[in-house]
Amino acid sequence: MLPYGRQSIDESDVEAVAEVLRGDWLTTGPAVAAFEAELALWTGGVPCVSVTSGTAALHVAYAAAGVRAGDEVVTSPLTFVATAATAALLGARPVFADVQPDTGNLDPDAVASLAGCRTRVIMAVDYAGHPADYDELREVADRVGAVLMADAAHSIGAAYKDRPVGALADLTTFSFFPTKAVTTAEGGAVAALAPEHHRRAARFRNHGLVKDPADQRAPDVGGWHQEVHEFGLNYRLPDVLCALGLSQLRRLTRFRARRSELVARYNTLLRDVPGLTLPAQRAYVRPNWHLYPVRIREGRRREVYDRMRAAGIGVQVNYLPAYWHPVFEDLGYRRGLCPRAEAYYAEELSLPLFPDMSDAQQDRVVETLASILA
Ligand SMILES: *Cc1c(COP(=O)(O)O)cnc(C)c1O
Question: How far apart are CA 194 and CA 202, in angstroms?
Answer without folding.
Answer: 12
